[in-house]
Design brief:
- The complex is a heterodimer.
- Chain A has a single domain (about 1-135), classed as 3-Layer(bba) Sandwich (Glucose Oxidase, domain 1).
- Chain A is about 20% helix and about 25% strand.
- Chain A has three helices and ten strands, in the order ββββββαβαβαββ.
- Chain A has helices at about 65-75, 90-100, 110-115, and strands spanning about 1-5, 5-10, 10-20, 30, 35, 50-55, 80-85, 105-110, 125, 130-135.
- The N and C termini of chain A lie close together (about 5 Å).
- Chain B folds into three domains: about 5-180, Aconitase, domain 3 (2-Layer Sandwich), CATH 3.30.499; about 180-285, no CATH class; about 295-419, Aconitase, domain 3.
- Chain B has helices at about 5-15, 20-35, 55-65, 95-110, 140-150, 160-165, 195, 200-215, 230-240, 260-265, 275-285, 305-315, 335-345, 345-350, 380-390, 400-410, and strands at about 40, 45, 75, 135, 170, 185-190, 220, 250, 270-275, 295-305, 325-330, 355-360, 375, 395.
- In chain B, the strands form four sheets. Chain B has a five-stranded parallel sheet, sandwiched between helices.
- In chain B, strand 7 (about 220), helix 9 and strand 8 (about 250) form a beta-alpha-beta unit.
- In chain B, helix 8 (about 200-215) runs parallel beside helix 9 (about 230-240) and helix 9 (about 230-240) runs parallel beside helix 15 (about 380-390).
- The longest helix of chain B has 16 residues, at about 20-35.
- Chain B is globular and about 65 Å long.
- Classes of the chains: A alpha/beta, B alpha/beta.
Chain lengths: ~140, ~425
Amino acid sequence: MIVGRPIVAGEADGEALVSADALSFWGGYDFKTGTIIDRHHSLAGARAAGRILAVPFSKGSSTTTAVLLEAVRAGTAPAAIVTTGVDAFFALASIVAGVMYDKPFPVLALDPAGFARLRSGMRLRISADGRIRESDVEAS
Amino acid sequence: MVRLTARDREMLDGAHGAAPQLAMSIVVRMAEVYAAADLMDISQAHIDSTIYLGDATLEFAERLASLGARVAVPTSLNVSGVDECGWKEWSVSPEWAAKAARQMLAYERMGAVPTWTCAPYQTRMRPTFGQQIAWGESNAIAFANSVIGARTERYPDLLDICCAITGRVPAVGLHLDANRGGQLLVRLVDVPERLQRDDQFFAVLGHLVGKLAGDRIPVIDGVVVSPAEDHLKAMAAAVASSGRVALFHLVGVTPEAPTRDAAFHGRAPEQTVDVRVSDLRDARRELTTADGRELDMVILGSPHFSLAEFSALAPLVAGKRKHPRVKFLITSGRFMKEQAERAGVLAPIAAFGAQVTLDTCILASPMLPPEIRLLMTNSAKYAYYAPSLLNARVTFGSLADCVRSAVDGLVVRDESMWQ
């Protein structure tokens, strides 16, 4: 189990998609398909819709939050976003998705050691108190 | 918990109306995210939420406007999703144009100034040193903080307008002097003055520093030239594309870095990285993703082309004509174009065959026809984003390279400085 700090609390269940590269959603995420499109990014081509996306922080464009809001509306957003440290951009997108569509998604901050334990393909369950469990292999 | 003034609380309770209440609720939630102890006043805002992406950005804007939202401070507007007057010349669908125009109208109804530019610092709404502002648009944030010494956090879309409506922001981050000191030292080692004078140098340096800095404040030591404002603009755009840099210091150039020690607030750097000509050469190479000499379009103006840039371009194109197969497009703002017209530098540019798009850019508006695949630009920001956003391939070069290539109809680059 990994304990994160819930920046926007909530529950999510999904397959982890993990990268050490920061991501701009504008120019980096196609909200029509839920796919990462930034050619400079290690997850380029991967579908993140419905998955638990773990990137250290957002970078680049201010429009990242607006792309995420579009993705929430279109049903193509990640199920949750996990970062190292507090990322205000991802938090804001979730808060506004709550205000506009009543669909906030969990945003969690981990310390670097916790973040380093995440691997793409892990089946994760996030609970409202910020705990992350692997849901296939039971651990506590 | 963030401390609120009586007025903040009134807004939050709805005493000032539904729009300030909604905006203040988001500002207060974000203050908690930032772990801010207080809110503080701002005296200006720049709104990046203007960029139309789809129904969500439009619904957000129209929700605020329909609640009667008004900005509380002088507020400029970033690019929109459409060139309001010129979109029909391009591949923009009428549906897109109509919705993007509705989004523009919503922000105009809130009392913002229709600047429609990503370079608001080159309009009459340029902030001053030390001024507390809430700006969106990554290049503008980096420019305002670094080159002007104004104080803004890195504001995302959807929050910038809430700050403008309330006039309040969480008192955190780059608003506070104590957080503006450098963290990463980037030393230019044996980077000759003649390379620093090349007009691609600061864009390339920005691209490289953005990658090196990650989320830290970089201090670059070893600049021996006095860069033009538009070179610093190119650097700000580049550093905020490849990285998340909202503030950089150039020792001896930018206002908070008269000395290296001052830039670091007297502290030691967390890390030092040496940058040599070979690193810059590699960074420049990364900005080019095209592999041949074929060329469909030259694109200039990210951030928006300034009067000085129009003035530099005019003599390069005077008496020439671009190749008929190659398009030549400049993206700029209404205010900049007016200035260029008045200065008489637009005529030779039009005679050359160049077009000017206002209010938006090729990344924010779906204006390019699908057959345009191979771009050439002097903008590191266009070079960074066009491959992902437009599925285009890009050649990065100097302004003079762009002009020569447009005339020849094939990519021509003067590599002598970068061998």
